[in-house]
Amino acid sequence: AGEGSGPAPRDGTGPPAPERVLFPPTFSVSEIKNKQRRHFMFLRWKQQQRKEKLALKKKRKKEREALGDKAPPKAVPKTIENQRVYDETTVDPNDEEVAFDEATDEFAPYFNRQTVPKILITTSDRPRGRTVRFCEQLATVIPNSHVYYRRGLALKRIIPQCIARDFTDLIVINEDRKIPNGLVLSHLPDGPTAHFRMSSVRLRKEIKRKGKEPTEHVPEVILNNFTTRLGHSIGRMFAALFPHDPQFIGRQVATFHNQRDYIFFRFHRYIFKSEKKVGIQELGPRFTLKLRSLQKGTFDSKFGEYEWIHKRREMDTSRRKFHL
What we know:
The protein has 2 domains: 29-70; 87-316, Rossmann fold. 26% of the residues lie in helices and 24% in strands. The chain contains 7 helices and 11 strands. It has helices at 35-67, 96-104, 108-111, 129-141, 155-164, 229-239, 312-315; strands at 119-123, 145-147, 169-176, 179-187, 193-202, 220-224, 252-259, 262-272, 278-282, 286-295, 306-309. Strands 1, 2, 3, 4, 5, 6, 7, 8, 9, 10 and 11 form an 11-stranded mixed beta sheet that branches. Helix 6 (229-239) links the parallel strand 6 and strand 7. Keywords: Ribosome biogenesis, rRNA processing.
């Protein structure tokens, strides 16, 4: 036999020798001392795990097809979302107290169509190019929004000027090391003010398979999974940024999707391929928000009264506990 071949059968007619097991049951990558070899073996092990998982999935699918109607129901996989710890502040749509609060809160004039959204978008002092481009693209997503670049002017001086010019909301984009990393949203004239940490910012040119530039049509707004009283307030803040009546002819949709207290923003356009098939095309920009605080009234970092503050050591003790 040639060098490296497996053991041949004794009589020459039996079945071929089984393949040598690549990884023994007690295999541990951490025992390998060489870093490059350890990384290579880890990738091989992950590849084998994927193959075994796919083979098991195909086997179960064939078994279900063979059983037909007698097949048992599919097991629901356990996820962090469906094992979420119940929150006593979860909003019931039929709750009279919630309905009364909505009719009397700071956003009631908007939802009663008494005010038209007018947004001022500004930045931290002396913004860099990436933050400037992000603000310009955000202004094309939110109708009736205006971009103003600060030059050392304090927010406490900007807010009275915004109120005098009938602005309904103020958005401040903060940056660190030339990257946008924070967003302050203040509803005018009486608040509230929310402070978010911003991450995963992608401008239009950085999005693969992006569509053409958005049009000036008023987009639809989708708010997903804002179920608690706190989440309900945040959702109403986002809704109050957009005019009431979307122009469906533009086929544009702005989505705020809350998942495990991370708010993912996406801006898409519908594409009708046929009478039955509809595709979506991302327009950008995209970003992710994490609520850090909710403050009563307009922005006041020293003497403001806070409704909610994210305290990591106290609030993040369980992975299945969410606040929005």
